[in-house]
Amino acid sequence: MPMWKGQPLLIDWNTFLKVGLLTVVYFSVGRIALFLGSTPAYITPVWPSAGVALAAVLLWGYEIWVAIFLGAFLLHITFHGISTTSVITGFSIGLGNTIAPILATFLLKQLGDLRTLLDYSQTVIRFVVLGAMLSPLVSAAIGVTSLCISGRAPWDLYGNLWWTWWTSNGVGILVFTPLLLIWRKFPLRRNRLSMQRIAEFSLLLLLFVGISIVAFWRGYALEYILLPLLVWSAFRFQQHGTTLLIVVIAAISILGTVRGSGSFVRPTLTESLLLLQSFIGVVSITGLMLSALILEREQAEGKLKQANEALEMRVAERTLALQESEQALQTIATEAANQAAEFRALFTAMAEVIVVLDAAGHYLKIAPTNPNPLYKPTEQMIGKTLHEVLPAETADLLLAAIQQALNTQQMGY
Fold first, then answer.
1. d(C-alpha 175, C-alpha 281), whole Å
2. Which residues make Cβ contacts (< 8 Å) with residue 352, sequence separation at least 6?
3. How far apart are CA 71 and CA 30, in angstroms?
4. What's the rounded Cα separation, in Å, for the pair 97 and 111?
5. Cα(364)–Cα(346) distance, rounded to whole angstroms?
6. What does the DSSP 8-state code read for residue 385?
């Protein structure tokens, strides 16, 4: 009897839907890229599916790997047809395209928090080196080797195909992974969606598209005018605006080059697109680095503002505490003065004499009470002994009483 009989089949529908969605997206953008490229063995110079795959693993985790494998496998067999060779080659290519984003995610995760991958200049450098440069080496090596072994590509083109595969994956990651990572959370704050900012971004986007069309579709060498607009976007719209414009310029420039116009057109389409990759890569890295630096500056300014506010609050608290202490001291001083006045009045009203003597019978202090009972004036008695002031018999009695009080700690009456 099977162990699962009578038990419900548990399915993680969330993961199931993610796998299905990613498979469709990976396959669809891959077909579009294959339509635009024309290199031997269907290696396209721009591979956005690599960027989609890396973004998916970064956001959803390693368990999404099956969607990447299915997407790459289906792309191959639908392009070349179903055969034993196509299935084996497709399996190898799917394996390589799956290992690459998993490797990149693992390395990036070891070095920092994936949630802030594009928020700092150092993490952007890690993303470029590990995500866009290192990880595609794996998929390029496995993919091109599989094509050559299966006879889909000649071995004498191995170097060129490997380079094209590697750069196409790298550019796809630089363009599409940041877009998906940044735009997974749309900025819904009102200050970012005010009519003024919408109008400003609309103007920026219109200029960007217009200049891109003129540069890449009309053949005028104006592509570097786009860089100041990218700087404008980085300062005013940060990562969201910059990543969107990078995709816009990549799409328009690729379509224009495919049409045979623009500064990067060369005798062959492959050469033209490969030359275009350097421009797209420079624009992407520049935009990402600039956005990260601006974000770092804003975060530093925010922390400095918070520190200043905290310092001002502490100063205000200390000032208030000092004021309260000063008021308390003034109250204590007033009370002490009042008590001193009361004691002076009390001493003045007393008829008895208050004298402070030491153990040897020296006069130390004489309270300012009634001086009439004194044998001598006060200034003549301070520092002298009882025997120097009083008769010997009286002095002996008083000194004996003082010694007894000190020894017994009791006063005699």
1. 8
2. 369, 370, 373
3. 8
4. 22
5. 21
6. B
Amino acid at 11: I
> In this prediction, what percent of the chain has a pLDDT beyond 70?
87
Using CA atoms, how far apart are residues 179 and 243, in angstroms rounded to an integer?
5
Give the 3-state secondary structure of 103-126. Answer: HHHHHHHHHCCHHHCCCCHHHHHH
The rounded distance, in Å, linking the Cα atoms of 80 and 171 is: 25
DSSP 8-state code for residue 221 = S
Q: Which residues contact 270 (CB under 8 A, 6 or more apart)?
A: 37, 38, 39, 45, 164
Q: How far is CA 42 from the centre of its chain?
A: 41
Q: What is the number of alpha carbons within 13 Å of residue 191 lying toward its C-beta?
A: 1
- Per-residue model confidence (pLDDT) at position 110: 92
HSE value, Cβ hemisphere, 13 Å, CA-based, for 246: 35
* pTM assigned to the model: 0.73
What letter represents residue 389's amino acid?
A: V
Q: Is 390 helix (H, G, I), strand (E, B) or coil?
A: coil
Which two tokens mark 51?
């960027």
Q: Are 268 and 295 in contact (CB under 8 A)?
A: no
Which residue, 281, 48, 288, is CA-closest to 178?
A: 288
Digit-coded pLDDT (tens) for 50-75: 999 999 999 999 999 999 999 999 99
Rg (Cα) of the chain, in Å, rounded? Answer: 45
Q: Can you give the length of the chain in residues?
A: 413
